[in-house]
Amino acid sequence: KKVEALAGQRVVAVSAGEHHSLALAADGSLWSWGWGGLGQLGHGDTQDQLLPKKIEALAGQRVVAVSAGLYHSLALTTDGAVWSWGHGAFGRLGHGDRQTQLLPKKIEALAGQRVVAVSAGDDHSLALTADGAVWSWGQGACGKLGHGDLQQRLLPKKVEALAGQRAVAVSAAHNHSLALTADGAVWSWGGGGGGRLGHGDTQRQLLPKKLEAFAGRRVVAVSAGGEHSLALTADGA
User: Fold this and answer.
1) Can you list the positions of beta strands (E) in the chain?
2) How far apart, in whole angstroms, are the C-alpha atoms of residue 234 and residue 188?
3) How many CB atoms lie within 10 A of CB 103?
4) What are the backbone angles phi and psi of residue 87, rounded to the nearest 5°?
5) What is the DSSP-derived secondary structure letter of residue 5?
6) Helix (H, G, I), strand (E, B), or coil: what is residue 67?
7) Cα–Cα distance, 152 to 193 (Å, whole number)
C-alpha cells in the first residue's frame, strides 16, 4: 500500500530497520516512522510515529544517504559528514561513548574524512570514504568489525586489512559485514554460521577475506542479511 503521508515528497531512497523506517526526499529532508523507543527516529523523544515525520534536527543539512539498523540510524550529508542517533550500546553510534542519542549527532571522529556510503548493522556500523577505505565501529563480536579481534570500538576505526583495496560498497548485518571492491570482488568477515560468509565453511573470519567463489565474475552490488548474503553480478545474475 502506498504511504500517502509521503505523497507530497519525491522520495529518492529508503531504508528499513528492524522496528523503524527511513525515507530520504529529493530536497534532502529525512523522514522516519515506526517504533521510537530508543530514539532511533531522531525526533528528540522516544515516541512511536504511526506516520512519516520529518527529522527537523537535520533541517539545515542536505542528506544524501541513509541506513536504518536494529536500534540506531545513520545519515550521510552532502558535505561527507556522518550523523548517527538511537541506542548507543556497544558504541554503535561512533561518538566515543555508549550514550543514547535522541537527536542526530555528527560523528566528529570522521570529520577529516569524506564519507560516501554508510551501513547500519544490528550493533555495529560501517562507513566508506571517498578514497575507498572502510571504517567500522560498535560491537566486535565474531570479528565483524574486521580488525582481527573481538573488541568493541567506540570510535570509527579504519579496516587496515583492506588498505590495499578500493572499496566501492559496504553492508553491515547482524554478525557479519561485506565489502565490494572496485575490481568486482567481494570480501566478507565476522560470524560464519550457516555459511553466510561464502567461503564454503561456517568459520568466523576476524579479518576481511575475499570470496573465491566469485573468481571470474564481476560483482556490482552486495547485501548482508541477518543470516545470509546476496550479491548481484554485472550480467544480472
Assistant:
1) 11-16, 20-25, 30-34, 49-54, 63-68, 72-77, 82-86, 101-106, 115-120, 124-129, 134-138, 153-158, 167-172, 176-181, 186-190, 205-210, 219-224, 229-233
2) 19
3) 15
4) -70, 130
5) G
6) strand
7) 20
Contact 115, 76 (CB under 8 A): yes
β-sheet bridge partners, residue 76: 65, 82
d(CA 137, CA 96): 10
Cα–Cα distances (Å) from 125 to 102, 153, 185, in that order, read 18, 10, 21
Please, is 165 exposed, middle or buried when counting C-beta atoms within 10 Å of its C-beta (0-12, 13-18, 19+)? Answer: buried
For residue 44 the three cell numbers come to 528528540
Q: What is the mean pLDDT of residues 177-190?
A: 98
Is the torsion defined by CA of 172, 173, 175, 176 positive or negative?
A: negative
| Residue that is written with C-alpha cell 548507543 in the block | 88
The 10s digit of each residue's pLDDT in 73-115 is: 999 999 999 999 999 999 999 999 999 999 999 999 999 999 9
DSSP state of 37: T
C-alpha cell at position 159: 579496516
Using DSSP, state whether 130 is helix, strand or coil. coil
Question: What are the helix and strand counts (H, E) for the chain?
Answer: 0, 18
The pLDDT value given to residue 191: 98
**CA triple 87-34-64, angle to 5 deg:** 75
